[in-house]
Every structure is written in structure tokens, then in C-alpha cells.
Amino acid sequence: MFFPPLCLGQIEISFPIIQAALSGYSDAPMRHIARHFGAQFTLCEVMLDQFVISVSKRKSRLYFAEFDEHPVGAQLMGSQPEQFVRAAERLIDEGFDLIDLNFACPVKKVLGRGRGGYLLSNPQAALKIVETVRRNIPNSIPLTIKLRKGFDHSQESQEKFFEILDGSIELGVCGVTIHGRTVCQRYEGTSDWDFIQNVKRRLCEHGHSKIAVIGSGDLFTSEICLQRLRESGVDGLALARGIIGNPWLFRDLAALLQGFPKPEPPTLHEQYDVLMKHFRLAVELYGEHRAATTMRAFGIKYSLLHPETEKVRQAFVKVKTASDWYRVLEMYALKKDISSGNIAENFS
Known about the structure:
TIM Barrel; 2 domains; nine-stranded parallel β-sheet; 13% strand; alpha/beta
């Protein structure tokens, strides 16, 4: 089954499945693991424009590996066009290859400050941000936007969605990621892929077939991903919650896209190796103390693949130090029969 490359301005991605920006998750270690399993383009976690402007060192959320992480995108959130520009310029100076503007975040404190998904209710403000950023960054840097299907389910909200989308295209964005829920839905209900499909069809009918539409929402298995990619006609998929703790989703989907059988699920030994690598990358970036707490949330997600999910999850919940982490990892894989993926003894 052939799918054309995902083109975002001058960036061409032959495997049209990207890692979405995930607040609190898609840091450099997670992106490294995603690339190991086949992702060719990743986005760092969403960053507030004020943070990017004021941070003094190129580390943590601003860090990426120069030697193997291009192309890499940065997602920005804020409310003031001028601050968006300053932050975008800083990110470009740091070496990021693409700027993505977040008009989708549904978190209440974000909405209350006129950021993220709030901007879907205010097309004038959203388009001013797009216009100001596009005018002030180099033409060689692709500019994309992240939207939800609207602020709510009203007709007025849908009209504002298309006002922002159409206006952004006229202003020079080259792609849009659409999550198929409204801002008010947050993560309740199901992602509306009929809406995403209709957006792609509408753009093609209006002569904008080269504008990349990337679909997002409820992409938890390789089979569902393949179905959404095939049926919706989108140019690519952005994997989000489905890859937290399951980077094998990239591997499985790559196999299906090439017409190969889906690989066997990872054994406990394979899971252990990836968890250990992920933790060591976090230690290199953050130091042992911060890595232990930062990685706790990842460990909880990884536990969903383990046959003793609840016991492993509870063990990760209690992790506070690096030594705790290594202890839980040893418990995770154990020593007996790990090649077959069987649990030979219980956790204490």
C-alpha cells in the first residue's frame, strides 16, 4: 500500500506518521526513542512563548540532538503576536526546523489566559498571530498550526474554525494538524474523523491540495492508524497519547504501511531494554534526581504493555529516586523466562 510523503514546506517525510507535541512528555529522550522505532519527524512538547524568550540555557525542553534529530519541530503557545515572534526567532536560532502554533490546548488555565484553544473562539487574534509570525520568520522555515474541530459544537464555532483555517492558508501556513474533538470536549467522547476527512476534501476542492492535513485523535493501535490514514485521505497522522509508553506503535504501523505483517508484541526483555535506554537518556539530560520523577509518568504508561500491569504500575507510582527506578526495572523484566514474555514470579 503506497502513501505519498508528507510535505511540510521544504521538509519531506517519507513515513507520514509524526510524533505530536505532548506537554510533559515529548522531550528529547522520548523523541529519541520514537526515532529509534521509525518516526522521521517529531515535535517537542508545547512551550509557552514567555518561557522560550526567558530561558537562559539550551537544555531540557529546548534541547535536541544535533547529530540525529533533524528535522525537528517546535510548538509554541501564547497570546501576544510579538512574543510569539520573539520565541519563534529564538527557536530558529537554536536550530529547530519548523514552527507550529498551538490553537488547540483545552486546559482550563490555558484558556483563561487567552491561549491555546481559546484562540479558536477569536479568529481575529489567531490570524494576527499567524500573520505576525509568518512575516517575521524566514520563508525557509515552515509554519504550521494545530487546531481542534472548534471551540464547541455550535455552528458559529465551526464557522470560526474555517475562518482561522482559510485565513492561515492565505497568510502562508503549509500545514494543519486537526484533533477531531472540540476544545470543550477536552478528551471526552470520540475524535470526529468524518470532520477531519471533510476538511481535507474541502481544501482539495478549493485548490489547496498541497496544504498538508495531519489527523489526530484516538490513534492507539496500528490497525486503527492505517484505517484512518486510508479512509480519511489525510496526508499524515500525529500520534499522541497512543505512543506514550508504546513507541512500538511506530514500528508496527511502518510494517503495515509497507505491506508486511504486524510484528509480534515486544517481549519483556525488549520492553526492559527500551525502558532502560529511555531512563539513561533522561539521566543524561536531567540528572538522576529529576530523571527519576520525570520518568515516573512514562513508567506508568509502559506498564500497560506488561502482563502484570497493575503491580508494575503501582511500583512505578512509588518511584522517587534513581535507585528506585533501577529496582523497579529489575522487577519489570525479572530473570526467569523473560525471552518468552512470561512472568515467573510476583512483585513484592
